[in-house]
Amino acid sequence: MANQLFRKKKINAILPDGEGEIHGSESKLHRILNVRDLTFFGIAAVIGAGIFSTIGSAAFHGGPGVSLLFVITAITCGFSALCYAEFASRVPVSGSAYTYAYVSFGELVAWIIGWALILEYAIGNIVVAISWSSYFNNLLQGLNIHLPFWLTTNLTTAKEALAAVNAQLATGAAATPEMQTIINGFNSAPDLGGTKLFLNLPAFLIVALITALAYIGMKESKKSANAMVVFKIIVIIFVIIIGFFYVDTANWNPFMPNGFTGVLQGVSAVFYAYIGFDAISTTAEECENPQRDLPRGMMYALLICTILYILIALVLTGMVNYSELKVDDPLAYVFDKLGLKWIGYIISISAVVATTSVLLVFQLGQPRIWMTMSRDGLLPKRFSNVHKKYKTPAFATIVTGFLVGIPALFLPSSIMTDLTSIGTLFAFVLVCLGVLLLPKLRAEGSGKFKLPYINAQFILPLIVAGFIFLFRERVTASVTNLFNENHQEVLFLLFIIIAIVLSVFTFIRKYSLIPVLGALSCLYLMIEIPVNSWFWFFVWMGIGLVIYFIYGYRKSKLATEQV
């Protein structure tokens, strides 16, 4: 049974899928994307809510030193991007990390990765849609257009907002117009069987519009994404230039007010900003020259976004004290404080455009992963149907629209953010480790990008030893209080054990440095995510395994070939 669970696809057997040689020419997608389009898709996915909102929370904890966190995160993502580039060059077929896991680890791991990627793309887009709704509503209010409160949020968020207002009023604080709006809005919401009805209608409508755009074709999606990327880059560069004139360098001292620990507190928020660069790999079958352009597009997008994030972080923490930045809209806040409200208005428009582009890229990515899984027999055949006119995975695109749009109407975004990060990092870890198995497959592939080999035999053990030395107090405390320790520290100890084991294998087998560093870096970021999110991640994985053993295990194309 183990052989069946870990049966692998050969690269030479996968490549014809992208050319319609196996499933017929009607299943072939249009090859219309060049390296510029791919770079823009990467920027569209990465420059989103992070640069307009979560960067504020990270700066509040880390101070100006948060700019270093963007560098660290970029390096971590860079390791993963290089591994993705190696795979994308050798296996230029839609499916992203799912397909890469299929050729390196086998079917069961591939399914697990494919199921985890739903967290990144579909579940992640629920968060983006809710964020978009917030930006859009703020923009409308700036134009003195006020939608009913019950049509702009969900029940959980509305209750939390009302509780916060009541807590303030209980202290004797006077009711502000904003507080009164929440009270009146909650009381005026329709009553449905004794429960107040709240619907995030803007979030649902934008998902519907983006899904329609993704459905009618890659050419239209490409033009829309490129236009949105050009606009938001112009706005961000404009903000950086204007902002530097208002920077007070005294605000950069101290550079790390809460030490390096404070900087690392923003890991989840900062990494969430980078999620999405791998979405480029899902468009492999629509690239003119995937083996050459996919690696370039990933690296160019990552480099450009990192530079912009670092500059924005320095401008923000230079314009005001870092302690003021724990707000939902830090960019608009700093300019409003300086009396430049017109710039804040431009930023609000750009935030709406930026999150729209993220929605588009993720709504394009998820259906193409499902399409590939369906070709392999792990999902019903309808998921691999390509529209005869539009040449898009039509059914999968519609299902993705419902999977994102309906929950966006009712659910809060809080726990889904961490779930998205875990799912993405999990995929990154396995892609990095999967590259270590690629040398055995190299004769079958003919990729044009080759990951540089750096012998990690001695380097990795030294790095792990140095890490343990730097965190020796935490290691000692965790071991001493093992049975009285919280689950977060148990995850930390587990990471240490995995790092030591991987160091031993690296010393014996002389693994390449970039993949092993990428895997360990992503794994470390994973353990910093709250334990509650890990619980829901394991629940999600359990559901996925049940579906696999009920359907995919028996229907797998490789299973039917072996019969």
UniProtKB/TrEMBL annotation:
Keywords carried by this UniProt record: Membrane, Transmembrane, Transmembrane helix, Transport
The reply on keyword Transmembrane is yes
Q: Where does the protein principally reside?
A: membrane
For this protein, the parts annotated as crossing the membrane are: 38-60, 66-87, 108-132, 197-217, 229-247, 259-277, 298-322, 342-365, 392-413, 419-439, 451-470, 490-508, 513-529, 535-553
| Cross-referenced Pfam families | AA_permease_2, AA_permease_C
Name a GO molecular-function annotation. Answer: amino acid transmembrane transporter activity
As for subcellular location, the record says: Membrane
**InterPro entries cross-referenced by the UniProt entry:** AA/rel_permease1 (IPR002293), CAT_C (IPR029485)
Q: Outline the extent of the Cationic amino acid transporter C-terminal domain.
A: 513-556
- What name goes with this protein? Amino acid permease
Organism from which the protein derives: Lacibacter sediminis
